[in-house]
UniProtKB/TrEMBL annotation:
PANTHER family xrefs: DIMETHYLANILINE MONOOXYGENASE (PTHR23023)
Cofactor (UniProt): FAD
Gene name per UniProt: LOC114648771
Descriptive protein name: Flavin-containing monooxygenase
EC annotation from Swiss-Prot or TrEMBL: 1.-.-.-
Lineage: Eukaryota, Metazoa, Chordata, Craniata, Vertebrata
Gene Ontology molecular functions: flavin adenine dinucleotide binding; N,N-dimethylaniline monooxygenase activity; NADP binding
InterPro entries given in the database record: FAD/NAD-bd_sf, Flavin_mOase, Flavin_mOase-like, FMO-like
Keywords for this protein: FAD, Flavoprotein, Monooxygenase, NADP, Oxidoreductase
UniProt similarity note: Belongs to the FMO family.
Enzyme class: oxidoreductase
Length: 439
């Protein structure tokens, strides 16, 4: 889609880690790209990492976006959580408090001169493809935004490409549990969990043993009268806090408000907390016009889990799950730029569709459920390397994989302690070089 005559205009939706990373790379390539326009619905940079004490609505009456809790520390060491070209402060411990990540993202934003390109409190309402003969490639995008606080007018601007960086930890996924409405205690989703104190003396059932479920279990075990972790992978091999029980998944809630587990056991807790993850939502993309489908946590059709084959200037950054997010964004975004600047030539639409279909069939034949197809896990490293090879940019150094994978093992073996580990992957001299690169 490279235009010979003029620079490309790119809209970026969201100023979380992915949106900032997109802007950082677009700004570095001003020979090809105009400075991007970032639309951010809130008034702050950092997305998920902007902790809000309140739940529901914020002080401006907007829905609270972040799912952070007060005492959260990262579950990935800062040495590999960082963008590869911008390390965290070397004096910080490996597993940092969420306030440090927000600080880090603000530093990244200012260091790369991104802030002036962000339009805060702008909600992207619609992103529509427009086919016109007058522009090279024929396809442009009308991006319509409104003032998030409801004041002011809608505006529509035209772009050559759109990078969707709207995150996917905002819209709680509520599983279809028979009789959920019968539950008489406090029913909540982990999106609204902030602090442990209000749960003192209460009995709690947590549904889901993902990263949030496990973290919240540890916090609540300090104060609650009883904590039960209900999940599908019984029993977990890692040591759990004293007094925490494990139970099978919740099959239904009976008319007396009792939780009935898969094996017939029952419980009537004070609190039932769903730690069941989040939905993908792209409310600004019309189903009829763009035809993106979200089924069972799988988003299709997306070539390389990234771009729509019929609209190869629409990029969805960061929809893969079970990845090391910031370095993954760093790779996806540079690949997207190589598609836009023409240094990587995409296969034809038909070839991309055939490849996607073949990949999907291989996964399904291997027994991967549709809802797990976007979980890359250890395959993320080959994926990132492929992005780098096709996009002709520097791959991640090998220690990224070794440290990330080692951390996964330590987390599984030593859940209660792994965040106290300190990694020393760089010598002081190497750190100085890294810090210099970021300067
Ligand atoms: C509880 C929790 C703990 C986590 N812990 C870790 C960790 O330890 N390490 C790690 O690496 N990752 C962690 N993550 C994952 C984290 O989400 C990613 O690291 C990363 O921050 C995601 O960035 P993002 O830019 O994709 O999305 P987000 O941070 O969600 O940012 C999206 C932005 O888009 C904006 N937006 C959305 N829709 C619109 C619209 N229509 N118009 C305008 N703006 C819009 C939002 O306001 C937001 O600012 C955690 C996530 C959660 C929820």
């Amino acid at each position: 889609m490279m235009s010979n005559s003029r620079r490309l205009q790119v809209a970026v939706i969201g100023a979380g880690a992915a949106g900032l990373c997109a802007a950082r790379h677009l700004l570095a390539r001003q020979d090809v790209f105009c400075p991007p326009v970032l639309y951010e619905f809130t008034k702050r940079v950092g997305g998920t990492w902007v902790y809000e004490e309140q739940v529901g609505r914020d002080e401006d009456g907007l829905p609270v976006y972040s799912s952070m809790y007060r005492d959260l520390r990262t579950n990935i060491p800062k040495e590999v959580m960082a963008f590869p070209d911008f390390p965290f402060d070397k004096h910080l411990p490996s597993f940092v408090h969420h306030t440090e990540v927000r600080k880090y993202l603000n530093q990244y934003c200012d260091y790369f001169g991104i802030r002036e390109h962000i339009k805060f409190h702008r909600l992207v309402d619609s992103v529509r493809p427009v086919f016109s003969e007058s522009r090279q490639g024929g396809l442009t995008w009308d991006v319509t935004t409104s003032d998030a606080t409801g004041k002011g007018h809608k505006t529509t601007n035209q772009f050559d490409a759109v990078m969707v960086c709207n995150g996917h930890f905002f819209d709680p996924y509520i599983p279809a549990i028979t009789g959920l409405e019968n539950f008489k205690g406090m029913l909540m989703h982990s999106h609204d969990y902030r602090v442990a104190e209000p749960f003192a003396g209460k009995s709690v059932v947590l549904l889901g043993a993902g990263l949030s479920g496990m973290d919240i279990m540890i916090e609540l075990s300090e104060v609650a009268s009883e904590v039960t972790l209900s999940h599908r992978h019984l029993p977990l091999s890692c040591p759990l806090p004293r007094g925490v029980h494990q139970a099978q998944g919740v099959k239904l809630i009976n008319e007396d408000g009792e939780l009935v587990f898969e094996d017939g056991d029952r419980a009537k807790p004070d609190v039932f907390m769903l730690c069941t993850g989040y939905n993908f939502t792209f409310p600004f993309l019309s189903k009829e016009e763009v035809g993106l489908q979200v089924r069972e946590h799988c988003v299709t059709p997306l070539y390389k889990h990234l771009l729509h084959p019929a609209f190869p200037s629409l990029f969805l950054i960061g929809i893969c799950r079970a990845v090391c997010p910031f370095p993954h964004f760093h790779c996806q975004i540079q690949f997207a730029l190589s598609v836009m600047d023409g240094s990587f030539t995409l296969p034809t639409q038909k070839q991309m569709e055939e490849e996607m279909e073949a990949d999907m069939q291989t996964q399904l034949q291997k027994g991967t459920a549709l809802r797990h197809i976007l979980k890359l896990d250890s395959e993320q490293w080959d994926y990132n390397d492929e992005m780098a090879q096709l996009g002709k940019f520097k791959p991640l150094p090998p220690f990224w994989k070794s440290l990330y994978e080692a951390n996964k093992v330590f987390r599984a073996q030593d859940l209660l302690n792994y965040k106290n580990y300190i990694y020393q992957v760089f010598s002081d001299q190497e750190w100085t070089v890294m810090q210099k690169i970021a300067e």
